[in-house]
Amino acid sequence: MNPAPLVEPGPPLTAERVSRFSRQLMLPGFGELAQRRLAAARVLVVGAGGLGSALVPYLAGSGVGTIGIVDDDTVELSNLHRQVSHGVADVGRAKVDSLADTVASIDPECRVIRHRDRLTSANALEVLAGYDLVVDGSDNFPTRYLVNDAALLTGIPLVWGSILRFHGQVGVAWREHGPTYRDLFPVPPSPDEVLSCEQGGVLPSVCAWVGALMSTEVVKLVTGVGEPLLGRVTTIDALTGRSRELSYLAIADAPRITSLVDYERFCGLEPAPSTIETATDAAAAALAAASAPRGVTAADLLARVRGGEPVRLLDVREPAEAELRRIAGSELLPLGDLAAGDEPSAGAGTLVVYCEQDLRSRRAARLLLERGHDDVVFLVGGIDRFASVAADLVER
Length: 396
Hints:
One of its GO terms (molecular function) is nucleotidyltransferase activity. This is Adenylyltransferase/sulfurtransferase MoeZ. The structure is a single chain. By secondary structure, the protein is α/β, with parallel strands linked by helices. The chain folds into 2 domains: 252 residues, Rossmann fold; 117 residues, Oxidized Rhodanese, domain 1 (3-Layer(aba) Sandwich), CATH 3.40.250.10. Helix content is 37%, strand content 17%. The chain contains 17 helices and 15 strands. An 8-stranded mixed sheet has the order 3-2-1-4-5-6-7-8, with helices on both faces. α13 packs across α17. The longest helix has 20 residues.
């Protein structure tokens, strides 16, 4: 059984608003009452990036009266290929300000509340207060679990979406009427298994596709029109043009959520604190943190090379692998030799370590950092990823 409309209707529409939404008002089962519900709705959107910049304009266009936007980031050039509500002139601006301007250009009567903050366990319940519904367009698992739990504790429905490469997912979580995000993903994936859009890439149209589906779920929940994705997830594959549906149920014996926690730690991004920490333990932890290797994406490395930035490329694969293909200008130093004490040649610029994927290069980068090399990164996805974006720089 579908839930009742989420929002009570606002005042009757003016003649101008009837004209503006005339093509929507004529939809079967919609009408003026549904439009008035949208006008009275208060919707919070978490994230003003790929998904937020795709779905927020459709929320404004459909007539949502109040849109809150949570994001602490600024627009970068690398955002523009997929975050199409921002433009070149917005580079360096707060994303919430840029997206608010986009909304104003669509419908000046739509109220935008700007939350230029990072959503955290400390502020989430306060930020969600007063909204009818929350939409999660974030790009990381800690925020997804945080938004799910905050929505559960405040009793409001959650529309969530995710994108990566050529794929996307959309679902609705609402404990009062069905399962939540935690019932679908009870345990977060290991950080080593997670690719971000920065590391894995994303097709721009996937953002638009998923964002449009998310905005549709908002309209359905607010107005009571249609069947929302409660207990169901829609997945899309842009390469095949296919979509499919996955059904799931609430976990009967799942732990009850009573408060918000440290979601970075919950997702394995921070070590759990020891009950007793000695000065030696603290020093060891500091050393481990200092020697944790950083990754550089294939696109970022390509930008550095094309821009003439000095970089040194260290291939830690075996000679037989390097004979098949290698990044031009690389120095070969197999991981076994490096572990035995051999050192790369001296030179200027960041030392970029790579292998076929990035398992060996992570270890190699850590070894080099522990030996005192202070400007070392590993290539995320290795030569396999780099060849997909810069084939002309790969020698065979």
